Amino acid sequence: MVKYIPQAWTNYKRQSTVGWSITQILMDVVGGVLSIVQLLIDSSLQNDWSGLTGNPVKLGLGNVSIIFDIIFITQHYVLYRGARKVIEDTKVDEEHRALLASNDEEAAAR
Predict the structure, then answer these.
(1) What 3-state DSSP class applies to 21?
(2) Which in 28, 49, 60, 89 has the greatest CB count within 10 A?
């Protein structure tokens, strides 16, 4: 949880996920799902479902990981999707202004 909360809070405060890679989260959700699936398969093969709760740390980490991954995916693809476009447009405008200003300075120097 320590590694997830600061990023979720930062995304919320900025209302954006620009500059942050979603790839690690997509891999993390796959790892969390596979971890829980492994617990289910092991318990199924042993016909002993207490194995599911017999490793509470693995079960807990898998669930916490999946919950935060869903939060991040929701932030990236649903809540702040439009923020990427606004920030990218702002950056382009700033770059154009800087380029135009340098062109004006060069023309004035001639």
Answers:
(1) coil
(2) 28
> pLDDT by residue (tens digit) across 47-93?
988 888 888 999 999 999 999 999 999 999 999 887 665 555 565 56
DSSP-derived 3-state class of residue 80? coil
HSE of 32, CA atoms in CB hemisphere, 13 A: 17
Averaged pLDDT of the chain? 84
Residue range 34-57: mean pLDDT, rounded: 90
pTM of the shown model? 0.70
Going by the DSSP 8-state scheme, the letter that residue 3 receives in this structure is T
- What is the C-alpha separation between 99 and 62, in angstroms, rounded? 49
Q: What is the DSSP letter of 10?
A: H
H-state helical runs in the chain: 5-14, 23-45, 50-54, 56-74, 81-109
> Could you write out the three-class secondary structure of 41-61?
HHHHHCCCCHHHHHCHHHHHH
Q: Dmax of the chain from CA atoms?
A: 85
